[in-house]
Amino acid sequence: MAISLNILLIEDDAIEVMKFNRVLSGLDVKHKIIEANNGEEALAILKVKEIIPDIILLDLNMPKINGIEFLGMLKQDDYLKYIPAIVLTTSNNRKDVLECYKIGIAGYLLKPLKYEDYVDRIKKLIDYWSCIELISQ
Fold first, then answer.
1. What is the DSSP annotation of 114-131?
2. Rounded to an integer, what is the distance from CA 72 to the centroid of its chain?
3. How far apart, in whole angstroms, are the C-alpha atoms of residue 116 and residue 23?
4. SS3 state at 107
5. Considering the domain 6-126, what is its CATH architecture?
């Protein structure tokens, strides 16, 4: 049985945020989305520890603290490092993929150009994470 997730979405593109929220609003299970515009804002949200996300979805190309820098800081925190982080990006640069897996991400998902393909990938991603055992903080 699928569970409702607390999802931290780190994305600086407002259209991408709207697109993601639109896909999730069409799902049977209602998930809580916490939005951050960049890695710096995400770290501030996580530091408060009011709501600890079940998963983190993040873009790589962001201002202030980019996705790879954010991942490095996340994985150094003994309390937060176990939160699954999934990269959701347009970058298919092999160097980025390798660096992210080296840091310890849970997955690397390319944003497809066609909206229908995007919907399919996001639904599969959320279905997967909402039916596996996650570490409760």
1. SHHHHHHHHHHHHHHHTS
2. 15
3. 10
4. strand
5. 3-Layer(aba) Sandwich (3.40)
Other beta carbons within 10 angstroms of residue 25's beta carbon come to: 10
Residue 68 · residue 49 · CB < 8 Å:
no
* Residue ranges covered by each domain of the chain: 6-126
pLDDT in tens for each of the 137 residues of the chain?
678 899 999 999 999 999 999 999 998 889 999 999 999 999 999 998 778 899 999 999 988 899 999 999 999 999 899 999 999 999 889 999 999 999 999 999 999 999 999 999 999 999 999 988 777 65
Other CB atoms within a 10 A radius of the CB of residue 44 amount to 10
Sign of CA dihedral 92, 81, 4, 14: negative
Give residue 3's region: left, alpha or beta (phi > 0; psi -120 to 50): beta
For every residue of 38-100, DSSP letters joined together read: SHHHHHHHHHH-SS--SEEEE-SS-SSS-HHHHHHHHHH-TTTTTS-EEEEES---HHHHHHH
Q: How far apart are CA 67 and CA 61, in angstroms?
A: 6
Three-state SS for 113? coil
